[in-house]
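Holo prediction. Input below; ligand is adenosine-5'-diphosphate.
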Amino acid sequence: MFPPLVLVMIATVVGVTAFATRYTYTFSIARTEDDLRARTQLIAAQLAGPLAKGDEAALRRLCRVLSQEGEARVTVIMPDGRVVADSMADPERMENHAHRPEVAAALAGRVGVASRLSKTVAREMFYLALPAPRPVTGSGPPGVAGVVRLSIPMTPVARILADIWRRIVLGALVVVILAVLVTLLVSRRISRPLEEMQRVAERFGQHDFKRKIAMSGREMSREVAGLAEALNRMAQDLNERMETVTSQKNELEAVFSSMVEAVLVIDAEERIERLNEAALKLLGVQAQRGIGRPMVETVRHAELMKFVREMTRSETPAAKEIVFGDGAGQRHFQASGAPLVDSQGRRGGALVVLNDVTRLRRLETIRREFVANVSHELKTPITAIKGFVETICDGAAGRPEDVERFLGIILKQANRLHAIVDDLLALSRIERDEEQKEIELQVAPLKPSLQNCLDSAAMRAKEKEIAITLNCPPELTLSMNPRLMEQAVTNLLVNAIKYSPAGGEVQVKAGRGAGGEVLIQVRDVGCGIASEHLPRLFERFYRSDKARSRKLGGTGLGLAIVKHIVQAHGGTVGVESELGRGSVFTISLPG
Ligand code: ADP
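Structure of the complex:
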């Protein structure tokens, strides 16, 4: 803004200077003319007499006198242009003046004014000529007896004018310099903060709100200071908003990426817009290769593709169960989808969330199987009891030996029912206590508990002439619930006896493992278990040898009870077995 201001200023000052010089010139000329005219009139009046008489000698004398009084050169010219008297030169030598412009004007009856270089005195002169009127009785051309001309050198006038002009120009120069300085200061006070503001505003554009416009009120004008303050306030405001937005975005981002559910965002062109970590893992894609690419290239799952596509075209949210993988690695997902609609109501693709429900489905299957198993287990003895009771009712009562046999079978089946229900109740109690953390643990020596187990199994062992040995350091203690632990070990011991041939041997061993854990082992040399059954052996009602188990009065729940008791103690139970060579069940408990 500085150059145009300076230009305007210089133009103004030059204009004013030109006007002033012009005015002083015309003013001084006019004053000189007025003054000269007054003097000429006075002198012309005094010369009128001799002029009328044609007394040239008198005219010359008077001319010299009046020239001194009037401080001007006085010339008298006759109507024919002949110079008759001149205060500064010899009229004889002077040429005819009829055609001098001022003389010609005066001869025509006007006031003649001119300025030029005088040939006579060789100086720049200012001339004023007046006609001297002829007396009414005189001779000569009518009206004009001659011309009286006064002339003064232009030099003093010019000198005065030059002096005035010099002062004007000097003044103008001073004014210009001062004005330029003031303009410079003012424009700097405006433009410097503006430049600073521009720099800072550019930083704001790059989201850098730390730099503020740091200029004092003295460095800028009030309006600009107000603007700077408003900008600073705006920056602070924007900064706060940006921080809020960023932190909210980060929070959302964190939630999005740490979600267990797989989330897919598809745009209207069926390109993948976003995938969270879980989705990347599930679909087996890398972020940089998946995002922004068409869904068909990334999602290699026809059912999911179909569902997502439906969602991009659908009006309402929907859900569907989708299965990934097959066999043992099969995973079930509950896919919930919703079309994405922007604030203007335009369709923008779809959002699909995949929730892993594999565990849920597995639990449902387990529950279904359990109910079926329980029903099946209960049905066999109930059917048997019912059948024999009906047989008795139908007339077997007359055959006491049959009735006795049937009642024996009924009792056996009732005992079986009782055992199953007892085991089921025990299992559910343990599960419930385990869930509610109501199992009371106490630090107790292990050996007496194991001895109790041996005692309760002694009868059965004796029946099959099986020798049980116990090997446990007496000082070994353990945080446990003795009643439950005894039940678990007894179950293992009873199984070992049950599945051992008569006269076999069962060992119960306890001690500390390498990691400080307490290990309880029940080893038999019985029938053993085929390896394919081992993974599912601890499931409810799972039997490796159904016929043998039933025959031996097993419920199929013994090992499930063991597993839950051990779990309630924070431990694990495992089995190693070889068909025909015996089995080793190991309970491992934290020491
Ligand atoms: P059950 O009441 O039928 O014995 P369990 O849950 O105690 O039920 O055992 C499950 C199955 O594991 C049994 O049916 C049996 O086939 C097998 N099993 C358990 N312990 C032994 C063992 N010591 N030797 C051989 N097989 C065993």
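The domain at 2-161 is CATH 3.30.450.20 (Beta-Lactamase). That is the main takeaway for now.
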